[in-house]
Sequence to fold (314 residues):
Amino acid sequence: MKWFKRVPARLFFYAWLILMVTGCRGRDAAADETGRIQVVATTTLVGDVVRVIGGEHISLTVLLPVGGDPHGFNPTPQDVTKVASADVIFINGLGLEQFMTTILENAARELNIVDLSAHLEGIPSDHAHDGDEDDHEHEKIDPHVWWNPLNVAKWAEEIAEALAEIDPENGTAYAANAAAYKQQLTELDQWIQEQVAQIPAANRTLITDHDSLGYFVEQYGFELVGTVFPGLSSQSEPSAQELAELTAIIRSYGVPAIFVGTTVNQRLTTQVAHETGTKVVPIYTDSLSEAGGAAATYLDFMRHNVNEIAAALR
Ligand SMILES: [Zn+2]
Fold:
């Protein structure tokens, strides 16, 4: 969704943004009229975990819409207002939310940002390619940490601690919610291991639209053999040569499926699949589904994705 693609509209937006962020009064009240603290989460995945831990004690705004691409998101003026007035803002981190940079640069006060990946062991992209020399070093760490449920268990701890810090009255509830959720994540991890065990070792190869499954690959013993969009973001189009190389890899590995998410343009993936006789298998990579869909929560997101991957590779 590129609402501000045309230049005059974009300039207007940034002028408005600076006005909104700098014009916001400093706050000390940590509650709305219902008494709940004001919490912002960036992505739908972060938002779901914050919702589980915060429960009825928080008023939560999730910035990314369902199906929105966090790598290429443009916040609305309303989003900027929410961020500027929040008691705490939970972000995925590791450079996923490039859009936060502009908001932070223009903030009039120090925002209470909790970077959920700050204490995780980030893994570098194992699919770096020749065009990456211009990239900054930090952009090489894979931000898609939620593809390992044990990382999300650490998110749960961090969220409970951060919420308790600004709302000590409900600290016990946050800690209890985090403990129960961590148990579910441990069970999810074990369930995934059982599903993966049923895929023959030689078939544990993945091709994805962009390099988003690195933590899954590492945790469960897969090999990522190629991506349609080069690198960790969905924002750079592959060259004709890169596409030709990918086609050759798919043919030589005999890869049966290309896994594509809902947040990335599927035109190129469909083209590559057509040329190589591979099937396109839709999964959810960077966003949950709509409520009532197959991946409306993080737990359902992982179960659905693993079922799709196992069915395609078995
Ligand atoms: Zn991504």
